[in-house]
Amino acid sequence: MSGIRIPAGFSVEVTAPATSANLGAGYDSFGLALGVADTVRARLSDTEVPHDSRAVITGEGADFLPRTGDHLILRVAEQILAAREVAGGERLVLECENAIPQSRGMGSSAAAVVAGLSIADAASVAAGLPEPTAAEKLAWATHFEGHPDNAAPALFGGVTVSWYPESDRASSISLPVHPEVRAVVVVPDERLGTDVARELLPRTVPHADAAANSAVAGLFVHAICHDPSLLLEGTVDRLHQEFRRPAMLASLERVDALRAAGLAAVVSGAGPTVLVLGTGEDLADRVSAVLAGDDARVLQPQIAENGATTLSLRPMSA
Ligand SMILES: Nc1ncnc2c1ncn2[C@@H]1O[C@H](COP(=O)(O)OP(=O)(O)OP(=O)(O)O)[C@@H](O)[C@H]1O
Ligand SMILES: N[C@@H](CCO)C(=O)O
């Protein structure tokens, strides 16, 4: 280490939003931030902390997420601080208020990664390093998350399109979303790990399917920015959803029923949550009416304009 360390008394509170990736045809590229967020308070302990009590967790995942350095937020924060040669990462302790359900396709891992990154950034700045650029933040978040479609909206909010200008560097832009577009999610109790869902995808797809998706992806951008009446046609996917049907039969049945009723429903991320995009304050009611008798939770969290926030950074003691 170069002698840079997190100062005594360091304390920060960050939030990171849930996200929905793919949005139909934009596999591994499109994503949006939702108005549900995890809140994490981190502080530097001035004494050694028992390894298994570094994270106090309430809310979603409190019964099964690890409390040690295996905890994703701690692991990300520590590894980034170590890469920057900032000492003290192993003495960070967390209070996590989790609102995002894990392994449901609502970007919980991206939110955890972005929370860890935000803590590492705040600690680095407190130690005297410059504030990282947006491009550096996306690079770190993509490094840990594996793909940028959840990471970009978790960092920057809104609806994002991500791509790889170089094979090892992701980039993203934010779209100017039509003000009437609303987002509803249908969240089942069942969990499905992203790694399991990715295993179900074929290594290659027919050229016609790739061509169809690229046309619809272009239409989606127009629909969400300018003409929400085209969202149903602009969310037809041929690259991922059907391949994953066997792992989430009930979710694909919900997608089918909602689309048959004219609502732009897609699998959210790797599932099994379903995302519905549309207009009107009554969108959640219309979704609930189509899914009458279904026990999955219907929520209308809206599209969040903002991504991760660093809520408070107390002045550091010397
Ligand atoms: N708040 C959190 N704190 C610590 N670890 C978390 C947290 N949220 C998610 N994780 C880790 O990420 C895993 C879930 O990641 P996974 O990619 O399977 O689902 P997801 O991110 O919710 O879904 P998707 O990527 O499809 O939107 C959890 O099992 C846990 O290991
Ligand atoms: N694009 C990703 C999102 C989940 O991380 C997938 O569908 O596997």
UniProtKB/TrEMBL annotation:
One of its GO terms (molecular function) is homoserine kinase activity. It catalyses: L-homoserine + ATP = O-phospho-L-homoserine + ADP + H(+). Pathway: Amino-acid biosynthesis; L-threonine biosynthesis; L-threonine from L-aspartate: step 4/5. ATP binds at residues 101-111. InterPro entries: GHMP_kinase_C_dom, GHMP_kinase_C_sf, GHMP_kinase_N_dom, GHMP_knse_ATP-bd_CS, Homoserine_kinase, Ribosomal_Su5_D2-typ_SF, Ribsml_uS5_D2-typ_fold_subgr. Keywords: Amino-acid biosynthesis, ATP-binding, Cytoplasm, Kinase, Nucleotide-binding, Threonine biosynthesis, Transferase. PROSITE patterns: GHMP_KINASES_ATP. It is found in: Cytoplasm. Belongs to the GHMP kinase family. Homoserine kinase subfamily. This is Homoserine kinase. It comes from Brevibacterium yomogidense.
